[in-house]
Write a structure and sequence with these properties.
Elements lengths: L2 E6 L3 H9 L4 E10 L8 E8 L6 H10 L16 E4 L2 H14 L10 E4 L2 E4 L7 H4 L4 H17 L9 H7 L6
Parallel strand pairs: 4-5
Antiparallel strand pairs: 1-3, 1-4, 2-3, 2-6
Helix pairs in contact: 1-5, 2-3
């Protein structure tokens, strides 16, 4: 019953770390996603598998919206498109309904779009599992760790017991 979905909004290093921390999320692949025109240019994002029996789509999307500037249509939106990339029409309808309900949690309109996941290009291997490999670095301290702290406050019931990428790396398997 796992589903595949893409999520973009900010730096894919941050987005990868956010979703690796959640229970019910399987493999998280950071990279670049392109949708159908006019959104066919690649934008930083992650493609992941999740089990909606463990983490509902609405919870996944709420975590996504709260961990990037989902109400700001800033000048870097070409590189950091705020989007939910879906694999089929039913998933697209469910995502659009969830976003409509979640709008009530925000003072400004969401700029997050529901788009078809047309193409995915993975990141260079040296950037995969960025937070696990650079946890003490300034980028993580400034950008990723505050998002993980927010997850701890807002989504404690959905936090994974152990980040999967860390466990997989320790066993030499890479991300699940």
């Amino acid at each position: 019953m796992e589903q595949v979905i893409g999520l973009g909004g900010g730096c894919h290093w941050c987005t990868e770390a956010v979703f690796q921390a959640l229970r019910g999320v399987g493999r998280v692949e950071q990279g670049f996603i392109g949708a159908a025109p006019p959104h066919d240019s690649f934008s930083e994002a992650v493609r992941l598998r999740f089990d909606p029996r463990i983490i509902p789509l609405s919870v996944l999307l709420r975590a996504h919206l709260l961990t990037h500037a989902s109400t700001s249509d800033h000048k870097l939106r070409g590189k950091y498109r705020s989007a939910v990339y879906v694999c089929d029409a039913p998933q697209g309808a469910a995502a659009a309904q969830a976003l409509a309900r979640l709008q009530a949690d925000f003072d400004k309109p969401l700029v997050t779009r529901v788009l078809a996941l047309e193409r995915f290009r993975p990141s260079d291997a040296r950037f995969v599992n960025y937070r696990q490999r650079h946890a003490d670095g300034p980028f993580c301290a400034s950008y990723i760790d505050p998002k993980l702290a927010l997850l701890g406050r807002e989504f404690a019931a959905y936090l994974a017991d152990e980040p999967r990428a860390c466990a997989a790396a320790a066993e030499g398997r890479g991300p699940r």
